[in-house]
Amino acid sequence: MDSVSSSALGRAFAPSALTHGECARGGAPAPCSLVIFGASGDLTARKLFPALFRLLRGGLLDPRSTVVGVARSGMDDDMFRRRMKQALQDADIFEEDLWGQCAQNLHYHQLHYDSPKEYAALAKRLGQWEAERGDGGNRLFYLATPPAVYGTIAEHLGRSGLARETEEAYARLVVEKPFGHDLPSARALDATLHEAFAEHQIFRIDHYLAKETVQNILLFRFGNAVFEPIWNRRYIASITCASSEKIGVEHRAGYYEHAGVLRDMFQNHMMQILSLVAIEPPALFEADRVRDEKVKVYRALRPFAPERLREHLVLGQYARGVVDGREVPAYREERGVSGSSITPTFAMLTAYVDNWRWQGVPFHIMSGKRLQEKLTRIVITFRDVPHSMFRDVAQGDMAPNRLVVDVAPDNAISLQFQAKVPGAQLCFRPVTMRYDFSAEASGTGLDAYEKVVLDCMLGDQMLFWRQDGVEACWGYLTPILDLCEACGDAEEHLHPYPAGSWGPQASLKTVRTLF
Question: In the sheet that 236-244 helps form, which strands lie side by side, from edge to edge?
Fold first, then answer.
């Protein structure tokens, strides 16, 4: 038998699989009319339209699709096209040839959100464009508006017939968070949406779920026999989920003063990350099966005893400080913020999931503004070995094993474990194995808004909230919100922290587990 190199053997016995490029490529969904309400706003220019342009460039948006900007501002098609062209140039993705193809299907329709006649006019224009396309008339309505008008728009879409589906065409409604201000308002909003749209037509967006690393959590857990057997209370000591921002309230003071960090980040993004880390394996990788398991996690969260709530919660508000070498104002000095505001800009919450897998394991959930770094990270800290035979002969402290999931700005998973330092003495140190998702993507990956818009057109609700999950999270957070909004003694309940730091002193012990 001739000798065969190990690399040749590896190729001979390697399993057949799609290459990365083959997996990344996919056909475009059917053409549709994508109607963006609030199209004169910042979200459309910074996120939505650049995402659509990149989908078109990547062959994932049918070039026959019509994009219609809708807002109260007085503009015509040419003015709107110039604004969107500038948005692409600002994002540094403008391409002249592709723009010519894109611009001819880009339109604007002025509409006051409470005017039935103007919805009828919109329906007429959509019908004309769809007749020119010659398709069944798929319609995707994206609400990039203030939440206060979600219900009004949905109601008029229903009354005008725009929400009606046929056997040949879909009509879908995309709703940005926040989904209500509290549990009663979330239920009221849902009731209004369902007067016009069925549940399968409603897509409640949480763009955090579309980040590549977040999508990989389920595959990492349930697709690898190395990790799933140890993903429980026997081997895991604690889990920390954090999302920190260097920026302050910026131009969102009007919204943030009424929301605070708990409504802005915890009720949606942080609860979704918690659920992916904690859920039981669904029987099938299907949208409703996965969302069923998420709701089970939310229902298993241990309720807060009001008298002990502050043992599990640290609230803070940023004071003056220095960020990137620049002095920045305190939250109460920001434009549009009350000088006596008790709105928290930082929260550290310790939660417990009362089930067999997680009983007794603390989940530390942290988010805040004006912190030292922009960072979204999940850290799984494993328990120490039950008995260390090296305790009398080795030098150095043996740190616990840690699995670190970096969502932003890095996009990677790393495993830290102990190894011997080369040399005559027995010394050990933590070392890291790391996989970087961005390095492999090579331009084929989708950013969060590209992914969610594509899934909306495909009708895939895997990465979207279901109403029972929304309500379960609001119910869990209600005692915390009640405390926040009743805390008149800011010195006792709302800890100031310098901008550019890692938050209040009372939270720093847990923050250190991130690094």
Answer: 428-436, 412-420, 402-408, 375-382, 236-244, 362-368, 346-352, 313-319, 494-498
